[in-house]
Amino acid sequence: MNISVPRRVTKATAVAAVAALALAGLTGTTASANPAAAAAAPDIPLANVKQHLTDLQSIATANGGNRAHGRTGYKASIDFVKAKLDAAGYTTTVQQFTSGGSTGYNLIADWPGGDPNQVLMAGSHLDSVTSGPGINDNGSGSAAVLETALAVARSGYQPTKHLRFGWWGAEELGLVGSKYYVSQLPTTERSKLSGYLNFDMIGSPNPGYFVYDDDPTIETTFKNYFAGLGVPTEIETEGDGRSDHASFKNVGVPVGGLFTGASRVKSSAQVQKWGGTATAFDRCYHSSCDTTSNINDTALDRNSDAIAHAVWTLSGGTTTPPGKVFENTADVSIPDNGAAVTSTVDVTGITGNAPSALKVDVNIVHTYRGDLVVDLVAPDGSAYSLSNRSGGSADNIVQTFTVNASSEVANGAWKLRVQDKASADTGYINSFKLTFP
């Protein structure tokens, strides 16, 4: 963010009720009594968001300790997020700009479908300051927006509005990336933006729960969500107008967002309200200690779910279940010319054997796919070949395979096994998914 100086809570029935009311207010219609009329947002897995933060930390560590504008760590961060979105089916665009003599990058991801004349956008800045890896500021917002975008893809969500997500560069230098994006949008395209949701620092270690007081509908959507959890909120004032939402607000786009606090000290009244201590919300703000240890899991979890709630509520739409899906999105490094590694999904609740057309979605990021041997391993150890050093010098294996697994009991631990059989190229398993009809 560019400014100066308990246990996991899941969505309650009350949250679903206020979601329907918020959507009714947004569209000017009466909320339907049919629960299928509007899709409820899925729970955003905290483990997935934290894995993204671990990956961003690794990028910073490998690139001089930061992910700042003009540094190699920032470009690596852009490439990391883009690869995840490309694999999920998004149309991505990398927008270049110049600031301080260095090239900067914005990443824009559009989900296919929805009304192109009504665009709901959510975003966060991806850059850090030069003094640290920027895991709370703003890996937290970036990771939660990324996982929400991935949840859209894997849920089969079909929004009424068009969904767009953005990751901004050079925010720490004065909102440079988001200002550039807005300046390049023709007036007619700006008018299509029905709202922009901003998430900058949402996992502060001594957190508060702050909501932007800009657009009333967006503000109410967030307040209602937290009210459904029994979590009190306050209006965000510490960084008001000092993050990327200002770039959109200044050209008339309705904006809103969430924040858990930066360098300001939590008051005694706020300690009584939210817990914690009467110290800075984030003592590592803009410092080298803003690492993966500088995150409050409860705040990150609640805010990640709130993002999804707002995206689903404000975009309207339905979800078409793609069958019963079992997925592992944790990254698994593939040793160069080394031993085989596996990614595991535990299948439960399926009666009898697996289908004769088991859908296997594989997402492997690798610089030379011709090095790889890829197998699906059933719970009894039987192996089904998916790719055996095919594809030559092309990179990545992002593909859906169909396997006749009808001789296998469905329930149990299924594994994607990958081995790199040659030297000089590297990669990792990005995700592995099984879909049972």
Polypeptide structure, described:
The protein has 437 residues and is an alpha+beta fold. It contains 10 helices and 19 strands. It has helices at 13-27, 46-61, 72-88, 135-155, 176-184, 187-190, 216-229, 245-249, 268-274, 297-315; strands at 91-99, 102-111, 115-125, 157-159, 161-168, 193-199, 210-211, 234-235, 255-259, 317-319, 324-328, 332-334, 341-347, 358-366, 372-377, 383-388, 397-403, 412-420, 427-436. The strands form 4 sheets. The chain has an 8-stranded mixed beta sheet with strand order 1-2-5-3-6-9-7-8, with helices on both faces. Strands 11, 12, 14, 17 and 19 form a 5-stranded antiparallel beta sheet that branches. Strands 13-18-15-16 form a 4-stranded antiparallel beta sheet, with no helix packed on it. A hairpin with a 2-residue loop joins strand 1 and strand 2 (102-111). Helix 4 packs across helix 10 (297-315). The longest helix has 21 residues, at 135-155. It is globular and about 60 Å long. The model is unreliable at 4-37 (pLDDT under 50).
Q: C-alpha Rg, in Å?
A: 22 Å
Order of helices and strands: HHHEEEHEEHHEEHEHEHHEEEEEEEEEE
**Percentage of helical residues?**
25-40%
| Helix segment tally | 10
Measured by DSSP, the beta-strand proportion falls in 25-35%
How far is it from the N-terminal to the C-terminal residue, by CA?
A: 44 Å
Return the structural class: alpha+beta
Largest sheet: 8 strands, mixed
Side by side, the strands of the main sheet go 1-2-5-3-6-9-7-8
Care to count the β-strands? Answer: 19
Shape annotation: globular
Mean pLDDT: 91
Regions with little confidence, pLDDT below 50 for 5+ residues: 4-37
